Amino acid sequence: MRFSRYASGLFTLLLALGWAAASRAAQALSRHTSLASSAPPVLWIAKSSRLDAKCGYIDKQGKAVVALQFDDCRDFSDGLAAVKVGEKWGFIDASGKFGIEPRFEMERRVINKSRTELRPTFGDFHEGLAAVAVSGKWGYMNETGATAIEPRFEAAGPFSEDLAAVRLGDKFGYINGQGVLVIPAEYEEVREFSDGMAAVRAGGHWGYIDKSGKVVIAPRFTEKTESRTYAGIKVDVVLYDFSDFHEGLAAVKVGEKWGYIDKEGKTVISPQFERVLWFSGGLAPVAIGGREGYVDTSGKIAIKPQFEMAFTFKDAVARVALPTKSKAGDQQWGYIDKKGDFVIPAKFAGADDFREGMAKVNFREGKVLRNGYVDSSGNLVWREP
Hints:
Blueprint: H1 3-6, H2 21-37, E1 44-47, E2 55-58, E3 64-70, E4 72-73, E5 81-85, E6 88-92, E7 98-104, E8 106-112, E9 115-120, E10 130-134, E11 137-141, E12 147-153, E13 155-156, E14 164-168, E15 171-175, E16 181-187, E17 189-190, E18 197-202, E19 205-210, E20 215-221, E21 223-230, E22 233-240, E23 250-254, E24 257-261, E25 267-273, E26 283-288, E27 291-296, E28 301-307, E29 309-310, E30 318-325, E31 331-336, E32 342-348, E33 350-351, E34 358-365, E35 368-375, E36 380-383
Antiparallel strand pairs: 1-2, 2-3, 4-5, 5-6, 6-7, 8-9, 10-11, 11-12, 13-14, 14-15, 15-16, 17-18, 18-19, 19-20, 21-22, 23-24, 24-25, 26-27, 27-28, 29-30, 30-31, 31-32, 33-34, 34-35, 35-36
């Protein structure tokens, strides 16, 4: 919903040919096999709300597995997590041991005369590979930090459904896990593959291609950029009138209303909503009359619009915010099931999606907001020290 907040915007892209194709194919197959046969334990970031706080990782019981020792932490992906030590980033495994020693830095880029921003020179691991920049060109590394696809791209994105977007010159295409360009670099901008489809822009408009590169929905969707101010900082926000595909449907905006199309581009749920998100578990959040609820894939209201904000279902529950605020002035967040009943009361000042039975929440102690994690019963299993 609210694609200004949730839709993917411009993302850094990919990499290049390195070793012999047969060798790369064998490595990719070996990596996929090892991931499937020995899934690493699931861990969550543990960090205090203090700006100077160190971070580490906990398990599902809230037990510290990796001590709070890093200056910044990212979520685990493919069994590895990026962590910051001083000004450099590296990757640790679930035991806290460095698999790739800290050597990556953030790159400072000038946005305009009054603003610069830091951008990473590396990505997270997806499908056994992570994008990395070397001397201004992007390629990929494997889980040991060794080069898997030689850097030759201007930008590189994460692998999704065995393909990754790359930029050659000023055009985008897609490569496979061996670094072979399988969809020509002929697009102005692209997104990751989702549900077998990817949004691509040509001639100033967006359409969709399948994994063979065939255009299945001709470019007709648009985007616009608006300048907005957050916490006193002015930023440009890209607003799209379409979404990625999930569960066979994509959200599209017609005029001022949102509806959904199928993979042939046919309208299956007529534009009638003020805001929308994608489908998950057969339901999608939508807004009607300023309140948010859920519809099923036929467009029928499944949970009546009654929330200030509603998000997609994860782990069979969805986080929602009530239209009223707490006495302290905080938004009231809780979790509902697919019937719309609260399974965890709306008592948090902030809430993230559930993942593998745990969700990060914010709760108030006096005038101070704290970080914590709750389990599927709503029990607080970890709170910041």
